[in-house]
Structures are given as structure tokens and as C-alpha cells.
Amino acid sequence: MSSKTLSEKQIELLRYLFKKSKPLRVFTVTDTQSSIAKELGISRQALNMHLKKLRELGFLRTGRGFIDLTDRAVQLLGRQSGEAIIVLRIEPSKRLNIYSSLSNLPVEKVYRVTGDVDVIIHVSQPLLEEVLNRINTLEGVRETRTYVVIETIK
Predict the structure, then answer these.
(1) d(CA 121, CA 98)
(2) Residue 65: which pLDDT band, with cuts at 50, 70 and 90?
């Protein structure tokens, strides 16, 4: 759909909502309620009762065809839902090999950048240790620095 099919008011609304929005990491389940109930060995009615209670307690958001776990649910499960940034300095002669290896890591983004560092990696916090261990095995990495995101401001 192109912006030409939207009214000026709809575009204004989208701009307003974007300005007011805060980026969130969302854990979404798109399985049907029937398949979830079957997998858990409970009736669909029982599943609906549990979902309703979890929604009321602030652990879930639900809608047509999706269930989102809130940060509160992720924390209750003892999982970290945060993000981390890894910054690398690389030996110039090893760059191509390292870029190739980095593309296989379980990370969200890998950026090749200019400046006093060579690479910036965006990774989810639960995978941080695994990713750092794999980076530490790469020949030619001069330096790594890691930053854990404590809050997304915009």
C-alpha cells in the first residue's frame, strides 16, 4: 500500500503515533489457540481462562491471531529481554574473513562502520554470552567492547 492511498489525516495520525511511540522488543506467539491447547493437553476453554487471567495480571497482550508476552512475563520466567551492543576493532588484513563469520552469528544486526571502530553488533541480551564466546574465537579481532542497553529513550 502506498502513501497515496492514505488520507492526510491518516498520515498525520501515523506521524503523531510514531512521535509518541517507544520501541519495544515483543515476544509474539502466532500459533492458534487450538494448537496451543492441544500442545499443553488442556481444553480450549481452559486455555482461554488462563489467557484471560494472565492478561488481567499484565503478563500478556492478546488480539486476533496473536499473543504477546509482556516484559513482566519475560522477567517472571527469569529471562532477560534487553538488548546489547558489541563494538569491534579488527585487524585490516582479517576483515573479510571476520565479516563473513559475523554474518553467521545469532544477532539482530551487524554494521560495518567508519571511525575508530570497525563493526557494531546489535544482539539480544539472552544471546550475549554465546555471541561474545564465538567472537573471541575469531582470529583478527583486536578489541571488543560491550554495552548493555538499560533504557531505550527514543
Answers:
(1) 13
(2) confident
Per the CB < 8 A criterion, the answer to whether 86 and 144 are in contact is: yes
Question: What backbone torsions phi and psi does residue 2 show, to the nearest 5 degrees?
Answer: -95, 165
Q: Please give the order of strands across the beta sheet that includes 60-63.
A: 27-29, 66-69, 60-63
Which helix (H) or strand (E) segment holds residue 95: the answer is: helix 95-102
Report the C-alpha gap between 67 and 69 in whole angstroms: 7
Q: What is the CATH number of domain 3-76?
A: 1.10.10.10
Measured over all CA atoms, what is the biggest interatomic distance in the chain, rounded to whole angstroms?
61
| 22 pLDDT above the threshold of 70 | no
Beta-carbon contacts of residue 73 (< 8 Å; ≥ 6 apart): 27, 54, 59, 60
Overall fold of domain 83-148 = Alpha-Beta Plaits (3.30.70)
User: What's the rounded Cα separation, in Å, for the pair 50 and 42?
Assistant: 10
